[in-house]
Write a structure and sequence with these properties.
Elements: H1 5-13, H2 16-31, E1 36-37, E2 43-45, E3 54-60, E4 64-70, E5 79-84, E6 95-101, H3 105-112, E7 122-131, E8 138-143, E9 148-152
Amino acid sequence: MDRMILPALLTLLLPPCLAQSKVVATAAARFQPEVTWQEKSVIHADFSCQGRREAAILGTTKETIVVAIFINGSAQKPELVTYPQDVFAPTWPLSIEIDGLDYNVKQRAEDLGTPLQGLQRSKTCKGIYLGNHQEDGIHIYWNRVMREFNEWRL
């Protein structure tokens, strides 16, 4: 069978979520080839509060943990949020999950003892939780003032 036809057929035969995960992982590898991307980690939600479905994927290098967030589709360079590996040592394995933002932001900032610039309560816009639930992970959110991703952590 022709090498070009087989991948196309597999994409058509795979369940939509698996095909989309493959597309996101391939796009991430194209933009950041030095990162080992975890195809099974792909999640979809409105992460940048633009009212559209976006994708995020978790990856690692020897030194860093990387979350790539495709806010303009998989053909455009993703937003990258990176952390040194030792931030989570020895709490592996890590994952990313959709993190709800429907909470009292002012109260959360008071609990943390620091303002959460640009974070707004939302039922539709989502954040990303990076961690493993053995200890508090990192909560990544879209800063609507600076138009970039920020995080908070207990």
